[in-house]
Records
---
Amino acid sequence: MRVNRLAVAAAAILTATLATACSGGSDEPSAPAASQSAAPAGPVKLTYWTWVPNMDKIVAVWNQAHPDIQVEVSKQAGGDDAAAKFLTAAKAGNPPDLVQAEYQMLPSFVAADAVADLTAETTQVKGEFSEGIWSLVTLGTDAVYAVPQDSGPMMLYYRKDLFEKYGIAVPKTWDEYAEAARTVHKKDPKVFLGTFSSKDPGWFAGLSQQAGAQWWSISGDAWKVAVNDEATKKVASYWGGLVKEGVIDGMPYFTPEWNKALNDGKLLTWPSAVWGPGVLSANAPKGKDKWAIAPLPQWNAGENYSGFWGGSSTAVAAKSPNKAAAARFATWLNTDPEALGLLIKEGAIYPASAKGAALMTGAPDYFSSQPDFWQQAASIGATARGFTFGPNVNVTYNAYKDAFDKAVAAKSDFAAAVQAMQDATIADMQKSGFTLAQ
Amino acid sequence: MTSRNKSARAHRAGTVPYLFLAPAMALFTLFMALPIGYTIYLSLRRTKVSGLGLGKGARKEIFAGLGNYAAAVGDGELWAGWLRVLAYGALVLVLMLGLALVFALMLDAAHVRLARLTRISIFLPYAVPGVAATLMWGFLYLPSLSPFGDHPFLSADLVTFSMANVAVWGGTGFNMLVLYTNLRAVPREYYEAARIDGASELGIALRIKIPILAPSIILTTVFSVIATVQVFTEPTTLRPLTNTISSTWSPLMKVYRDAFVTGDLYSAAATSMVIAAISLVLSFGFLRIVKNHAFGEG
């Protein structure tokens, strides 16, 4: 008898739970009614999620000049966690007005209907950005989903002094790079020319861009997914061969071991992006003034291509009640000369806007022996090929980590890992119902 | 006694217990039943995208039936994760509880010097948070930083042992303390009687102490089974340091990946229900097998 009563009570609780859960979950489509009221009474208050250091100082300048639009900065951790947090907040109906969005995450934001279309607000600033960067925020459509902020064109960081010591020249092609890797490792088995990181899909994506890969594209009303295209397989097989041969190390970037190897001069190169000086100065303080930059090695002699690793944009949440004001701030932040100057000085970023890149003078402290650092970076940046990112980059990137982790540990076929990325991406898109082109 | 009086008392006896239970029931509803109910609700839904999936209304949430459950149960990677956790769990359970028992018996034996200091030093690792402990061990495992030299602690063959080591190091002290406290509560006369009968310290440990400890051993085993089924901190913290731990190494890691890395909250909800069911079966199954010892029923 008593047991029965308890069971009934428990059942009642569960039903009540389900009922509230149902009513709580189904409020998706009735939100954007009260957007953009014509004349707000007080000053508009905007919240802005970003991880750019010292952004509050930059925003203070805007707030001073625009008493009617006050922006409040909320500092984020950055990376994948920040994207997941924004998507969750957007889903819960409580997103910030403005958000820093990495280029590869932007399509997931768009697919989740979490960011607003800024086409009307950005027609005037479109000319400030290069074609490649602009396509990162349009995803190849007619809409504009964010204002580009910084970009990460890739280049080769190398240890000048150790290159001399081991008697190798700066490699112009990837073949020369492989040859140099063999030479160095033969001369000192504890030293490697570089390492293949199975933890950094963005790095691999950049190298694939350089080779001409197009992982996603839109044809008509369908997505075309080609993570396993010839260019990508070429890049993968190249690195896989070197890892198997044992002349390139397989330890991931940004680990304590990697930091130590960089600092101790056990790693001679790092194919990285324009934001590399910050990482090097923090993790390899002993290498100050010993590193230099050069364009990435090329696949064919005489070519001149690079790719992008990282970079982010400023997006406006679809559910923001003050989209116009938010868009005004986003365009100011990323195109106004004063704001760009502050972004460079306070935020230590490499601006996506051409005007901003031209403002870069001097050289990073770590590279004080290379006074033309920014000029070189700018000319390399102009050669960067981007590509359109798809709506489920997170799935592809996760598959990269799992598949390449295994491939590096087993020194097995890297092309198979690329195929695993393609398969995971397609399977996820099919499951969700995306239209896929063959 | 009149009949009116009787019914009034019955009435009072009927409400008072519920009054006492109310706070517990409210908390249970708020923090257990509601979240579980919402998880079940989520596990029955999925997103449906149309066309390119870009722009307004391209993404809808729809009812999925048991599709997510079918996918979770049919996912080979999830079962591979269970196998890995099983191997890891067997190591941890045997080593951790075995050591805890040995230490508890040794500390309880007569004439042990520095018992208090030893007890605290064995218990101390339990006070170190899991993430911190795993990071510390991670640094010890990394070849170029390790004081143990160039050993493949994080290689595919050894990584399970290395992870189990972290859990054993952290958990032995707690389990030892549970067993030891139980031992201290045993009247000393038992042992004296045994000694008069000519039993050795080892004989006392084997024939008297361990049988007395049986319920506590079972309790710590159940706790440890539940903890190993939920292993998450150690592999997640070690993962960035090595390429031998996949994002779905343990079942809970797969839930985390689905929910927060690839953004499929619905699959994650279904998988977590499957995991909850399995850990219920494991812990209750174990209790059922040993119930005669556990509760002295016979």
Note: Chain A touches chain B through 59 residues (CB under 8 Å).
---
Amino acid sequence: MKSLEDLKRLQQQVKAKTSLRHAAGTQVIVGMGTCGIAAGAREVMSAILNEIAKRNLEDVTVRQTGCIGMCEKEVLVDVVRVGQPRITYGRVTAENVPTIVAEHVVNGRIVEELVVAKIEE
Amino acid sequence: MEHIRAHVLICAGTGCISSGSKRVQAALEKQLAELGLDKEVKVVETGCHGFCEMGPLVIIYPEGVFYVRVQEEDVKDIVEQHLYKGRVVERLLYKEPMSMERIPKYSDIDFYKKQMRLVLANCGHIDPEILEEYIAVGGYQALGKALTDMTPETVIAEMKTSGLRGRGGGGFPSGMKWEFTAKAKGDKKYVVCNADEGDPGAFMDRSVLEGDPHRVIEGMAICGYAIGADEGYVYVRAEYPLAIKRLRIAIKQAEEMGLLGDGILGSSFNFHIKIKEGAGAFVCGEETALLASIEGRRGMPRPRPPFPAISGLWGKPTNINNVETFANVPQIISQGGEWYASIGTERSKGTKVFALTGRINHTGLAEVPMGITMREIIFDIGGGIQNGKKFKAVQIGGPSGGCLPEELLDLSVDYDSLIQAGAMMGSGGLVVMDETTCMVDVAKFFLTFTTSESCGKCTPCREGTKRMLEILERITKGEGRIDDIALLEEMAKNIKASSLCGLGQTAPNPVLSTLKYFRHEYEAHIHDKRCPAGACADLASYQVTEACKGCGLCKKACPVDAISGELKGLHVIDQDVCIRCGACLAKCPFKAIIKG
């Protein structure tokens, strides 16, 4: 490295290596209760991870949660963007994932036809 | 490219490794691979979290869930429940000792709540063997800032503003020390990092070197720039193999990246660091002895002045600071001296790392702002005394420090009030003792240490501590004489006044402080031939009380047949035969045997 600028650039590049440990940014939460898993939550989660990787998105954390009681609507995926209500999508399949990521996670536009709930936090 | 959604941090400090963290890590990596989760879950080896008592520690992010005492067989649950299904494994969570409540989040645990982790900020959160992890959290930015935007004079001014005082124990203002070395005449100057850490019960320097070695390197390089040195040494004891290994890796990585070596970050500043492994002699922590040891001579102190700032390593101006002092430097430079000075008390700025050991629930490392009370450290952070016993004393500052009693628990922890109370900050070892500890025995323990570690160069330390130890041994055997206390006090005064280096000058402190606060225990040993804590084997006696049911278990346990009595009748211990081993006391189911 030849200058402080180089160092700062490198820091930006490697920041993602530890950013998970200082949570911020958008969260995608997948319901992984027994019902969710049975409905295919694992495939949905893999699709989400692939989509995020493909688009090289930073500051997005993917988490799991247990059953929240709407078993009938599984697979449930929540998207929380900083400062916006928590949106719950229902009956999500791997095919829906690119749309949710492109529209909501990246551009902040809610995919209305898949929404089952909005929670103001 | 895959997206990593979870980081599993496994502590790989010396403490956790010895309780099995390497085995846990191997099992975890295997399980993740089997379930195909290895592409989305990253395993990170970190340095010490400080919560050593509860190791091996595993933290899972982004949730920040904190698992304690994790064993190989727990890995299956962590992977299948937590990482696959997102369900917290309740039974592995930390249980609060008072409320018995299980606490999932790292940041909610009392042990961490009252701490202020600046020096230890990265310890346990980054992989110390990967330079990018340190850079990702802002590493080497302070060095870059110093080289690009600051002159050596402004770096020193910033250090002076911060009010940082030497964390090795002396408490000398660091900025002032840097200034002396910067102003000293000489074309060649050195920076030396003292990582000898020999106090019984202290391990904070080791943890910093193991958990965040780059921070120490960065601090040393900034110092080198400020004082005009192009070479640095880390003097670290050979008993710290992991610290040495990680330091080696870190130096190599920094050199490859152009953060150490010639023309650092495109500037004209050159700085090289070498490691000198010491053999682990207590005296080699004393700065002039340490320098002699680096030069290849026998580690013995010499009279000062001249101070190392004027004539140090090979006669050249040398700035010596301890590991923790250097570790404070990067954030002082990046956040400013005034920010640092806003933490702590009027005359003791910033934070201090303490190593909590002894009869305390949470053995480990705690970093607290100066001015916190001893009570908060021991009871709030340390979780109180083990097994519900009563607090008796805390030994602070290693052999150079002193024992403080319960009445002083609300004392503010800073350099000056500790000295006033007859102890000292020292390197920050805190040994907590409960009611079963005999204070004469404690003084004897520390004197045994200083006697065997005395380098022997000056007579007061070599002969004086030996004579004091003999008196203490006599007292604990019940052979104390009426004038022993006066004799101890007189010798202590003379040794303090006439020893060559700080080690001899402070060696009598454990005796003086125990005499000051626990004189009655000495008197009980000497006058009544009794050890009030029941710790001195030669003075203990065992008696059978009325609670005896005559079960005969004690009789069977006694190795010398000192106990007699009929079945269902009261038993008796023959005091002449008894060897005071305590086997009967341990065996009695009715608590009918007492020790006095």
Note: The radius of gyration of chain A is 16 Å.
---
Amino acid sequence: MQIPRTFAVLAVLLAAVAAWLAAATPDMTKVQVMTGEMAPATMPASGRLPQRPPAGADWRPLDQRVLAGWRDPYWLRWRSTAPAAADDAGRALRLSLRGASRLYWNGQPLAGNGLVGRTAAQEQPGRIDIVRVLPPSAAGGTDELLVLASSLHQNLPLHSADAFAIVAPAELLYRDVMRPWLIAAFATGALATACLYFLAVQRGRPRKPGARSLLALCAVGLALPMIEAWRPLLGYAYPWHGQRLLMLLALHTAAAALLPAYLARRFGVAVPAGVRIVYLSALVALAAFLPGFDTRSAAVLLLSLLASAGLLLRVRDAQEERGPILALLLAGSAALAFAPGAFLDGPYFLLLAVLMGFLLLRHAAHLRALDRHNASLREERAQLSLQLLQRGIHPHWLMNTLTCLQELIEQAPPRASRLVESLAEQFDRLRDSSTRQSVPLEDELALCRSHLDIVGLASDQRIALEVDADDTRLSLPPGILHAQIENALTHAGAGACAQRPFRLRVHRLRDRWIVELRSACGSAPHRGRGTGTRYIEASLASAYPNGWRFDQGIDGADWCGRIELTCAS
Amino acid sequence: MRILIVEDEPLVRQRLLRLSAELAGTRARFDAVADLESAGDRLQRSVYDGLLLDLNLEGEDGFELLRRAVAGRYHCVVVSAHRERALQAFEHGVLDFVPKPFSRERLGEALERLLDVGRYRSGRARYLGIWRAQGTALVELADVVWIRADGDYSELRMRDGRSELHDKSLAGLTSLLPPDFVRCHRSYLVNLRHIRTLHAGSGSRYWLVLGDGGELPVGRAYVEGLRRELGLE
């Protein structure tokens, strides 16, 4: 089953990424990327800001790293490399710049973005991305965008200014930018639904290992696309850009820490404390010291995906989950290694959504399976309790005993009185035992002895139970020795059992308890396949799933029942 | 009359012996054994007229015992705690079923039935046990066409033409058989289900024509009763 499931998750991921790429890749034939230059602006101490750069301005090619450090007013100039087409109606400009700006398109002023200022107090921060519809250009001429800008509210030093200007049809810049985010919104919705479903099935029950990590990871998975989509969908004033990048890095780092932590808990992989510390230190170091937020995020996530894949390789069971998760992690690692920028801009949270959705649904499926298992155990337990009571007050045995009691009342009242007491004790013990899943060995032996006492009184012969137990701490499902004794009495008869006493031996052999009960053999050919045996086997299976064994049969002159139980410790 | 008690529980055996002796007085003698092997020995060595039988004897299947018991010439009363199997016991041809624990009165009733077997007709048997060399076989009474007295035994004629010999006399069987079996002759019991017609001949002679085409004589003394049973009056 795990192979189709692996293919299914990969197919879902590939479909989501393909849809994203199809929606996010613009028609580059319609997009004109302009070449930029930059120059510091010389400002008069007061008065109006200049509308044109001075003739001797220190123009140099746009260097994003240098521009990232500029705060005071500066000039930017973008020029198109090709002449404007004759039909350039409906063109628009998209300018991304972390600053307040005044714009001039071929000498004509465009609507500004914030207020450029000489000081931080004077500056009103502009939005990081703006789109302006452009006036028609002169046919055959090249276009020039002149920008006076200031970035005095840029408090967080960034590796690159990421300033650019493109010209494209207005509909491309206004409408098409939204399309990829529909895919992201769909993925986020699916993840939120999976998360709510998980919370619903998780409610009111003990938490499974890793449930908290999974929910935290889910919260990260939901927050990531919101923070990512903040810029293209809502936009913000440029000082928020650094805060947003910090938030994204924090979310990536949190996801990088939570994913392997969840997988380790979920699959029960022991990770030494030293390894955990080294891993977290590495994450912090990568997030703090690598240049550029994208590089940091990519490195942190790559490390996380590889560490998670490494963890999963150590898992030996749970193939049906291990395969799909491993496939997703390796697909993510490969994408991150070859195209970190493209991966971080969208496919990453699609991967996270698919992975989280799968984990949540599997986790919920586990909880449901656990529910079913617990319900069947409860039902089995109830049936076993009922069986124990039914066996204890088996009508045939009870009626025979009552007939004996009748005779004793008429012939030997003191023995009749003892028989009534033993019967009362037997029923009291049975009632008590039937409410418990296991009873101490002493209690089970007391139940057996009271039963033998009754049979002894009825048959007027003492039936002994010899016990050789080097350790009596053992607990057993109630009634399993009683059932064996009852079987022996039924099949071999009280007379034979009186001549050959029951002998119980309980000892521990390495990691196992051995409980061996020997009794008179009897001659009934069908012994060992009746309701007593079924009761013993069902009780052991319920109390020690996969950790029991029950054999019985003739051994020399004895009938021998041997129970093996795997010790918990 | 001699009656054998087969009961493995000593106290119950003691109770059966004590109460039976009190209830039957001089009309019967009782012996008691604890297991089937001893019972077999006794039954071979002595002639018993009745059996008080426990169904569960130290793990042996009660109904195997029952088949063997009801195949004998003696009548069987079951004294058992297996109340749920009473109907089955009657179907196998026991005279009575006394559930444990039993009162003196209930045991007395069963003993009366055993001691005066001719007066009682339980009529609930569905099978009869037949001794065979390899064990006891069960014969379904619905398949028996008629039963003929054969000394101390009875010959059973089956629908398929086979004949079986039963250890009980015709009188002994009468107390067990269901109302379908009626006396049509001093030596014959006929199963009403298999009668096709009743014919009257000259000289007040009557005979029955059966489903398989065979004929059976009808004694004069039984004609009226037979007519009644066949709804010919």
Note: Residues 148 and 156 of chain B are 7 Å apart (CA to CA).
